[in-house]
Amino acid sequence: MINNFMGMGHEGIFVLVVIVVIGIVIYLIPTFLALSRRKHQLLAICLLNIFAGWTGIGWLAALIWAALEDKKPVV
Q: pTM of the entire structure?
């Protein structure tokens, strides 16, 4: 069954898996950026990225939000 998945051999399936993994990593760049920058709004950025990122505008908004500096609290 796996040898004939959509007419692909093992090499085709491997290439498909690699492309899907690369796509997921690219899709989650805003989340990874927010995580690495220890953003206070990490959960909100992650949710925006996951649920609205497919629109392109949502992905760009999440990326910009993740790249912006957190506001320092006023003492």
A: 0.80
